[in-house]
Each structure stands twice: as structure tokens, then as C-alpha cells.
Amino acid sequence: MVKQNAAAKLVIITGMSGAGKTIAVQSLEDLGFFCVDNLPPVLIPKFAELIEQSKGKIGKVALVIDLRGREFFTALSESLRDIRENFTLTYEILFLDATDSILVQRYKESRRRHPLAPEDAPLEGILQERKLLEELKGLASQIIDTSQLKPAQLKAQIASRFTDIEQGRIAINVISFGFKYGVPIDADLIFDVRFLPNPHYIDHLRPQTGQDPEVYDYVMKWNETQQFLGKLLDLLQFLVPQYKKEGKSQVVVGIGCTGGKHRSVSVAEYLGKMLTNGEDEIVKVNHRDAERDR
Q1: Order of strands across the sheet with 250-257?
Q2: Residue range 74-126, pLDDT digits in tens
Q3: Is 240 helix (H, G, I), strand (E, B) or coil?
Q4: Cβ partners under 8 Å of residue 121, min gap 6
Q5: Whole-angstrom Cα distance, residue 37 to residue 13?
Q6: pLDDT 10s digits, 18-51
Q7: Please, what's the b/e burial string for 169-204 (b: 16 or more CB within 10 A of its CB; e: otherwise)?
Q8: How far, rounded to the nearest angstrom, does the alpha carbon of residue 11 sit from its chain's CA centroid?
Q9: In degrees to the nearest 10, what's the CA dihedral of 233, 145, 164, 51?
Q10: Residue 149: Cβ within 10 Å count
Q11: Per-residue confidence at 68, pLDDT binned at 50, 70, 90?
Q12: What letter does residue 118 receive in the DSSP assignment?
């Protein structure tokens, strides 16, 4: 077994066609990664060998693997197993995803044909690809839902996440959302807070969000809220170290209510305050749907 330079890092970028892999690889190039697009999976172990033999000269590498090389794609699992068994090099799998409707929209705007269904409607290819990638998505170290992200936002998110990884910290991303707009497809954990008293039915609170003190205090004042938050915080404080031990570099926690404006935002804000920003983790809070009706 070859000894690896401690700084060596291999990132495998994959995911749905049209979900933003080109932007992702550009972002990692800006972070100093040596990037290779559309590398056949059977060559990954050979590339890992080159990284280790470079003695630190090649420290950060990103490889894009997608279904343009589908005849090689089934070899990916075997190549990753080879790395685990024969190299000290560690790797991250970054999986980019988006909802079917957004992917269809992007294909129509670009007038591209889906690589798996060049003669059919884009949705046919998208459904085939999603099924093929289902197992790989389950193995991913990081999943990013690009459905609502502009290119600049995706670049910023990747830069932030991989900076955290290089610092050896696990990122806890808390996302508030509205169930009526759909569940975040990149969430590891989903908690439904629709059982809590709803500020939507209080006239002067309805236009505000859970970031406003009046709404936040209203949600927090109930006994059931405090009981729930105590149990939720206890659960997360147990789970996060276990995820880190397993090698995950991020955990996405989704907090959902009906519209994603009041209760979920308040609970997400609470978690952002209470989860420790210590040496081992960094906490970020994002409110996906809080401003949708404004």
C-alpha cells in the first residue's frame, strides 16, 4: 500500500444531467482542484495511484463521472472499492440533483437532448437516469439540490462546503421549507412541525416570518414546542457525531411546515442558535420558502 500525503483529496462529481456539474467543476477549479471531466470510472484507481505517487504535488483532484460514459458507469462501484482496499487516499462523492420539472425546464431552455433518450421527451431520459443513479446517490458524501439555485449561488455553496471539509469540520445545514412547495431532495433528516400552533391565523403575524421576534416568540411560547425542541436537540446532538464518525462531511436537516414561513423558520432559527459552532462542526441556516409570497 502506497503512503498518501495527508493533504491529498479526491472529489468525485456526479449526479443528474442538467443539475450543474459543469458549474461545480468550475467552482472546484477556482478552489485549486485539478479537474478532469468525464473520466471513465475504470481509470479512477490509476488516477488515485498517480495522486499518491506525486508526493503532494497533486493534492486536490476532482473527477466528473456521468452517464456520457454509461458503458463504463457500472465499473464505478468496483473502482471505489479498489480505492478503499488498496489506497490510503480518501474520497468524497458530490451528487448534484434537481427536481424532474426543473430538469425538464433546463433541457427545453438549452434545446439539448437527454443522453439516455435522444429521440424521446427529456422526461423519459430523466426518469431512466434517476433510476440508474439511485444507489450512487445513497453513497454520496454530499448532495446538493440545485433546483432553486442560480449559478453564483451554487458556486458559493460549493466553495463554502469544501472549505469546511478542508478544515476537518462537519457542516450542519438546517433548511426550513414549506410542504406545499415540496420536500428538499438533498435533506438527510426531515422533521414536520405542522402540529405546532400556526401564526398564519393571527392577522398581524401573517405577513411576518419566523425571523421576526413576534412570530418567533409566538411559536416558542407553547409547551408542546418546548418539549419537541428538547427532544429534537437531544437527537441531533447524538446523531451528528455518529455521522461524522461514519465519514460524512455534511448533514442537511429539513424543518417543514405548511408554507415554510412561520413555524419551520422559527424552529430552524432556534436550532441555528442552539447547535454548537465548535471546532468540529459549523452550523448554517437557510430559509428556502420564507419569502415566496412576498
Answers
A1: 189-192, 250-257, 170-178, 281-287
A2: 678 888 888 888 887 878 889 999 999 999 998 888 778 887 777 778 888 88
A3: helix
A4: none
A5: 9
A6: 899 989 998 898 888 888 888 888 888 888 888 8
A7: bbbbbbbbbbbeeeebbbbbeebebeebebbeeeee
A8: 14
A9: 140
A10: 18
A11: low
A12: T
**What CA–CA distance (Å, rounded) separates 285 from 189?**
14
Which residue is associated with the grid cell 434517476? 130
Query: Left if phi > 0, otherwise alpha if psi is -120 to 50, otherwise beta: which for 193?
Result: alpha
Instruction: Quickly tell me which residue has 462501484 as its cell.
Output: 77
Question: What's the burial of 33, exposed, middle or buried (CB within 10 Å: 0-12/13-18/19+)?
Answer: buried
- What contacts 188, CB < 8 A, 6 or more positions away? 243, 251, 252, 253
How would you classify the pairing of strands 142-145 and 91-97? parallel
* 137 vs 16: CA distance, rounded Å: 10
Give the cell for residue 175.
Answer: 433548511
C-alpha cell at 239: 446523531
Q: Tell me: the pLDDT tens digits for 277-287? A: 666 778 889 99
Integer Cα distance of 157 and 144 in angstroms: 9
